[in-house]
Amino acid sequence: MNLSTSLDQIKGVGPKTAAQLRQAGLQTVGDILTFLPMRHEDFTQVAPIAELKPGKATIRARCEKISTRPVRRGLRLTTAVLADDSGKLNAVWFNQPYRAQQLGGSDEWFYFSGVFEYNYGRYQLTNPSAEAAKQLPVQADRLLPVYHAVRGLKTTVVRKVIEQLRPLMSVLPETLPPSVVQSEHLVSRAAAISAMHFPRSDAEVRQARERLAFEELFELVLASQLNKIDNQKLAGFAIPFEQSVVQDFVQNLPFALTNAQRRAAWDILQDFERAAPMNRLLQGDVGSGKTVVAGLAARQAASAGYQTAFMAPTEILARQHAETLSQLLVPFGVSVGLLIGGAKGKARTILYEQIASGAVDVAVGTHALIQDKVKFHRLGFVVIDEQHRFGVEQRQKLLGKVGDAKSSKGDNACSESVIINNTTGDDTGSSSPCLAREPRAARLVSRDEAAVIITDSEPIPSPVISTESVAADSEPISSPASTPFMPHLLAMTATPIPRSLALTVYGELDVSILNERPRGRKEIITKIVSPPSRASAYAAIDEQLAAGRQAYVICSLIADSSASDRKSVEAEYKRLKNSIFGHRRIAQLHGKMSAAEKDRIMQDFKDKKYDILVSTTVVEVGVDVPNATIMMIEDADNFGLSQLHQLRGRVGRGDHQSYCYLMLGTNNKPSQRLREIEKSNDGFHLAEVDMQLRGPGEIYGRMQHGALNLQIATLADTQLIARAQKAAKRFIASGEPLENYPLLAEKVRHNQRLTTLN
User: How far apart are CA 570 and CA 617, in angstroms?
Assistant: First the structure.
C-alpha cells in the first residue's frame, strides 16, 4: 500500500463508502490523508449540565425529546431536551432538521459541544455538534478531529479510514524548500498532517496548523509574486510625468485636494512612467474624490497622446462621470465622449469614428465600451468604476482594445517624487527632469444630431451630449485580440470585492486608499432597527423631511411574492403614500422601468421634486443627491456587506449629518454583517470582513466570490501572510529552480494558470 493506492482497496471501504469518498474528491490514500479536519473537539473536558457556565461547553447526555418546526420562510428550528444525571438542558439547531433523525428514538449517549448562552428568556445550547459516545473509541488520542461534511460524507467514516492509514503518515513528502522550513521554524509536513489527524495536545494542533497554513499561503504568495514579475515583462506605455500639466490641472480645481488624493494621484503617475502596465486598485468611500484622481491621470495620459476608457456599470453613473470629467478636462482641450443608450443611426456611427480616429480623448461609457464595434486609436489608460459590478472577462475585453498605440517615445521616467500641491502651485519635492510637451492644437469635430463630443474648439452648453444606443447584451463578447501591449488599469470602488482585496494582500494588485473625507463631510450614523422600533425610525425620517431634506427607502423586491415575506417597492410605496407619509411627495424606482423613466425619476429626486424615493438597489450606483440625508434599508440582512455599504453611500454626500437605518425582518437577530457596518464607515475594513465571511473567490480564475480551497489558512492572518511574502521573495532571490520541488511547482503553476490582472 502507498499514497496512490485507491481507497476502495482499503479494508472496510465498501462500494457505498467508496462512492461517498469519490463524491467528496477523495480517491486515493494520499487524498484522504491530506483531507484535514476543520476543527478539534476536546471531549475529555466534559461538564455536568448542572455545572455549565456561559460560553463554549461540552456535555455527555441523552436526548429525551426532539422536534422540528418551520419558523418562517427559509428557517426551520430543531429543539431538543438533553439530560444527564445532574439535570436537563434545552438545545436548539437552526436549519439542521436531520438532527431529529440522528438523535430521536434512541436511548444512546451523545457528546454535545456548542455555545451555552441565554436566549429567548432561557439558557440553551446553540447549534451543538453531536457525537455518538459509542463511536469515540475509534480515536484513541486526546482530541477528536471533526471533518467537513462534503456531500454528506460523515466524519465517522473519515475517522475509520484514516485510523487504518496512520502508519503511512510518515512517508508523506515534503513540499516546501528545506531553507524555508528551517528559516520559518516549521515542523515537517508529515509531522503536521499526523498531528492534525491524531493530536496529543492543543499546542501540537497549533503548531501543525501554523505549518500547514503557512504552506497554503506560501503557494499562493509565490504564484502571485511570479505573476507580478511576469506582468513587469508585459509591454506597456511609459507615460512621462509632466509637471506643468499636473500643476495646471490641480490649480484650476475649484477645491483643494485632500492629502489622500494627492498621494493616490502620485502613485498613479509613478506607475504611468514605468514601461510595465499599471494594475492598481483605488479604494475610497463614496464621495472621497476618486473621479478627480482618475481625471488628473486621464489629463496626463491625454497630454502624452493616449486615450482613456472610463467604464461605469450604469447609464446614470456613466453620464454623471462624463459630466464631471468634462468640467475637469474640457478647459485643457481634452475631449470627452459618452457611450450609453440614446442615440441611433448616424449619431452612433459618428461616435464610433471619433473614438477610432482619436478625436475622443476620454471615452466614458457602460458595457457598450467593450462591444466589438468600438475601436480605439491609442488606448493607454483604462478606468473601471465600481469594479465589483464587472466580471473578469469584461475587464479583460476592455483591456484588449489597445488600438494602434505604440510604446512611448524615449525613456522619460522620473525617479524623484513630486507632491501634488494645489494651494501654492509648487511641488514640495524635488524638481522633475521630465520635459513638458507642447499642447495639441484644438481639434474641430463636426456636429451631427446628438453625436457631438466635447472639444476644445468651442464652448458647448450641455457638458456631455454624445450618446450610444448599444445595449450591454446586444452583441456577443468575444475574447480580446492578442496584443503586445497592455494599457494601464485603474479599478475604483468604495468596497473592494473579496477577490480584489485578496490580490492586494498577496501583493499582485497595488492599492491606493482615499481615507480622508472632503472638507465638511460627516460620517454617516448607522443604526440597526428592530420591528418594534419602526415607528421611531419613521419619526426620524419625518424630522429630516421637515428640515427640508430627502430620504431613501430601499427594498429588495419590486413586487410582493408568495415565496418571500420581504418588503417590496410597490407595496411600500403604496403603504407609505397612503398612510405614514401621506403628507409627503413620494416616488418609486425599480429595474422594470425603462432607462428613460429611471433617469427622469432620479433627476426629479435630485431636483427636490420628491421627498422620499422608494427604490430597489438600482440606486446603489447613481446620481449624487447631496440633499438626501436619511436612508431606511428594509430586510437589511438580505443584502451583502458590500452592497449595504454602497447603498449607505447614497446619503452623506452633502454637508448635513446623515443617517442609515438597517431594518431587521420579522424574528431576525442582527447578523455579523449588520453589526460590522453599524460600527464602521471604513470600506476597506468592511471588505476585509466580507472576505472573511464569504471567501475571496477564485483568485486566479473567473469567480469573484466563494471559497479559495484553503483548508487551514485564513486571509485574516496578516502576520502569517507577511511571513509568507518575505519567504517567497527570499526564495525567488535565491535563484533556486522551482522545478526542484515538484509538488510545490504543481501548486504554484496551478495558481498561475489564468489571468493575473484585476
Answer: 14
